[in-house]
Amino acid sequence: MGCHATPVGRMEGGVTSTSPPHPRPPRGPYRSSAETRQRLIGAALALFSKHGFEGTSTREIAARTGVALPAITYHFGGKEGLYRACAEHVVERYRARMLTGVSAIQAGMPMPPDVARAALQEVVSLLAGMLLDVAEDDSWATFMMREMNHKGLAHDLLYRDLWEPGLTLVAGLVAAIGGRAEPAQEDRLEALLLLSSFSAFTTARRVALDFGGWAAVDPALVAAIVARLQARIAAL
């Protein structure tokens, strides 16, 4: 570990190379392919987000992906492994989109009320850009919300790596806005209300669109959602 192996080439004078022969790549649906793995996760997310774990079959996932059914066992060990891989994908996506901004905010805490208010408004904007990104498939966000509502197989992973850190950060910022060093119960409640606002446009999207008379969650609606949430934060 920590040492880099020196590449061994073919020696001069007819001496056979000491380099091991290249292994044959796995064939068919069993090949260890990052592309196949990601396709399976994408298809599974779309189906799990709509129908849940119990309502989705591995046969449906394989058919949607265009791979043989045993590929799921090969790559994930089975349906449960694939479900957990979907949850891990959600966590990775969150970190890729949020980590830089959130880390900068965390590094600046504790902070005075006005700075905390601006930081919380930034967090809301970042979350809206991630959860309501109209240019991307929203199945991962729906999967996350559905899993937390039903406390499924990936609930603990998503709570530990996404919800608890996010709620703790938001509650801490709400407390700082109020001049408190530690979050009180009302700060935790405010954090829950702020973050759960997004569920109206993910898991309950159809109800929200019908009630508001909107055709879709488009950039104009996302901007309006962010503006309302930021106004709410400004009033804290």
Could you please describe the fold and organization of this structure?
- The protein has about 240 residues and is mainly α.
- It has a domain at about 85-235: Tetracycline Repressor, domain 2 (Orthogonal Bundle), CATH 1.10.357.
- Helix content is about 65%, strand content about 0%.
- The protein has helices at about 35-50, 60-65, 70-75, 80-105, 115-130, 140-150, 155-175, 185-195, 205-210, 220-235.
- Helix 1 (about 35-50) packs across helix 4 (about 80-105).
- The radius of gyration is 23 Å and the shape is globular.
Question: Helicity level, as a percent range?
Answer: 55-70%
Arithmetic mean pLDDT: 85
Rg over C-alpha atoms, rounded to the nearest angstrom: 23 Å
Main sheet summary = none
Uncertain spans? 1-31
**CATH homology superfamily of the domain at 87-234:** Tetracycline Repressor, domain 2
Q: What is the CA–CA distance across the termini?
A: 53 Å
| CATH uppermost class of the domain at 87-234 | Mainly Alpha
CATH topology of the domain at 87-234: Tetracycline Repressor, domain 2
Q: Do you know the CATH architecture of the domain at 87-234?
A: Orthogonal Bundle
- Apparent shape: globular
Assign the structural class, choosing from mainly alpha, mainly beta, alpha/beta, alpha+beta, or little secondary structure: mainly alpha
**What's the order of the H and E elements?**
HHHHHHHHHH
* Total strand segments: 0
Strand content: under 5%
Number of helices: 10
